[in-house]
Amino acid sequence: MNNTVIDVHNISRVYNPDTIPVYAVNNVHLHLQRGEFTALVGPSGSGKTTLLNMIGGLDKPDAGTIIINGMNITELSPRELVDFRLHNIGFVFQSYNLIPVLTAKENVEFIMLLQGKSKQERDQRVQQLFKEIGMEDKLNVRPAQLSSGQQQRVAVARALASKPQFILADEPTANLDSKSAANLLDIMALLNADENITFLFSTHDQRVINRARRVITLVDGKIASDTAAVDISQPHKFETV
């Protein structure tokens, strides 16, 4: 059985191609299997976020193909890409990207509204997700009333709302203190283990790297190394922050 969920074939992203070309991503080739917990690492400007954005369909490569769940997303139109992301990919961003005028519950169920889910389906899924992130008492609280760690947990719940097979996370712990970051990583690790959700992180954070089971290092837009992580911490029970 083929468990590959992300299949990247020799993709490149180049800026200023007609003058002095700068390769943000240069002929990258990689595969991700279902259930992986992988970190993309490297110095600033190494191409981590660009690669993540192309895998997520937020940016298009100038060369190569990206196949996700058997679908070549590099051939999709902008409208088709929006629909594909809506039903297949969960995103977690460094800046949370929560809608400030909506409650935590409304932020999480927003994507399900776009999917046309019924109120009963939305309510059931939201209750389940807020239980998983340990925030059942924060359903009707707006983002400004939540701590940074709580806001990022809501962002994770929103990413999971559509029941995606994998999550793309761009520097998800960058704005969090050590305790909040550990709690967030616990949640993600448990979801990875219990629901076999595939996680791909772009990160500078050693706390994330230490929890990954695979570390892909980018340097100047190319894969410099692709190895199993040595220091893997075990999930522990998270606390409400």
From TrEMBL:
Signal peptide: none
Protein source organism: Lacibacter cauensis
GO MF entry, a single one: ATP hydrolysis activity
Recorded family membership: Belongs to the ABC transporter superfamily. Macrolide exporter (TC 3.A.1.122) family.
SMART domains: AAA
Segments forming domain ABC transporter: 6-240
PROSITE patterns xrefs: ABC_TRANSPORTER_1, ABC_TRANSPORTER_2
Name of the protein in its database record: Putative ABC transport system ATP-binding protein
Keyword Transport listed: yes
Cellular component terms per the entry's GO annotation: membrane protein complex; plasma membrane
Keywords, comma-separated and alphabetical: ATP-binding, Nucleotide-binding, Transport
SUPFAM superfamilies in the record: P-loop containing nucleoside triphosphate hydrolases
